[in-house]
Amino acid sequence: MKSFEEFKESRAGVDPSARRMTEYQWKQAYAAYVSSRERVRGGGGSSSSAGRRGRSAGSQGSSRGTHTPSLKSEAGILRDKVRGETAYSDLRMLVDIFAWVGIALIIAGALVSVIGYPNGMVAVAAIVGAGVQVVVALALRLLAHVFIDVPDIALYRQLMSEQSTAKSTDPDA
């Protein structure tokens, strides 16, 4: 794990707005970074431990020397790794909550429109309109997740490039 100064340097290099942060904000950001790293090392929540059990159970059944190719793309693997080590999991959860509450309100509004209007064409129009709104809400949710991932992916790629340059300059490696 990085020291406070190393964290500060790497974050300032990736996020230009971080250069304007106060010392108190830096300490909060570092505390979030440390707690997320500890949570990842400690096993996290029940979903991550269930995923580990599923992987270990699947790997025990395979014979030695065989390889089962992953169904995930390289980008998907990178996304899962970055999201597993992110300091923004609370923000991601908040985006999900707002998105699902918004979708529930859209559906409730469509149901009220269908019940309130006896004309069949108006009811169909309300359902189609609600469907379009739900699709837009889901697209905005996914877009918000992409924006949340941008700083973490940039930091991860910077760390990977630093490690690869350190390995290439290290004669013992």
Folded structure, characterized:
α4 (74-84) crosses α6 (120-169) and α5 packs antiparallel against α6. It is elongated, with a radius of gyration of 23 Å. It has 173 residues and is an all-alpha fold. It contains six helices and no strands. The longest helix has 50 residues, at 120-169. The protein starts with a helix and ends with a helix. The chain has helices at residues 4-14, 23-42, 46-61, 74-84, 89-116, 120-169.
From the spread of the alpha carbons, the general shape counts as elongated
H and E order? HHHHHH
Q: Considering DSSP H and I runs of 4 or more, what fraction of the residues is helical?
A: over 70%
Spans with pLDDT under 50 lasting ≥5 residues?
44-63
Q: Which percent band covers the strand fraction?
A: under 5%
* Class from helix and strand fractions: mainly alpha
User: What is the radius of gyration?
Assistant: 23 Å
Please outline the major beta sheet.
none
- State the distance separating the first and last CA atoms: 21 Å
Tally of helical segments? 6
Total strand count, please?
0
Mean pLDDT: 77
Task: Give a concise summary.
The protein has 173 residues and is mainly α. The protein contains 6 helices and no strands. It is elongated.
Task: List the defining traits of the structure above.
elongated, 173 residues, mainly alpha, single chain
Topology:
Blueprint: H1 4-14, H2 23-42, H3 46-61, H4 74-84, H5 89-116, H6 120-169
Helix pairs in contact: 4-6, 5-6
